[in-house]
Design goal:
It contains 8 helices and no strands. The chain is globular. It starts with a helix and ends in a 13-residue tail after the last helix. The relative contact order is 0.12.
Length: 256
Amino acid sequence: MTLAVFFGCTFIAFGPAFGLFVFTIARDPLRIIILIAGAFFWLVSLLLSSLIWFIAVKASDPRDESLQKGLLIFGVMFSVLLQEAFRFLYYKLLRKAIEGLVALSEDGCSPISIQQMAYVAGVGFGLMSGAFSMINLLADALGPGTVGIYGDSQLYFLTSAFMTMVLIFLHTFWGILFFHGCEHRRWWEITAVVVMHLAVSGSTFFNPLYVGSLVPSYLLMAAAATWAYMLSGGSAQNLRRFLLCLRSGASPQPGS
């Protein structure tokens, strides 16, 4: 049973992201480098926010439960803001990288666009975030022990896997939205990304009422996905052609 939980949660949490990596990133060495660098930037932001939270906890009274809860909320919100700050720093770094690639290319064009960089960087942020969210849970899923034996929810591992999956997708879409906002100086788009990130992270405080965190997160993911799709040049007509497996310029056959 423990192996079934382990592999099931692993495939739920990382299966879709692994598919994105295999089909859209793995064949391009430059994209792999951008993904790894993005994961590193997220990791540094986590390290700094963890250090600040650790110092705050050690400097406070551990017997004061309300203070400890407040510090936990502060740590989560501060971590979100720091992640978005490092996303902005990564954008600035990639912008410089594009200028260097253009200068070195023979045709004066970059081999990768800023939109593609935004997507790959978002996947990097999401994968590293998901890894840190699930790695300890997956280790515990191997046992020994039975989830919910003392009356707690038996859906803990399953809901954690679905939450990890949505966070990976959200980071991907947030990367596209954030980079687009930086590129076109639309600061309200950047603000929207930060607000959505704060909302999703704050919703986890409803746990173990998992409906209070999963439902809002998936609704925000749908909104962010639609927004990112439109900013990337997508349209309802293109989506319809994709769903109907139509080629550009072709028309549906009668009765199809």
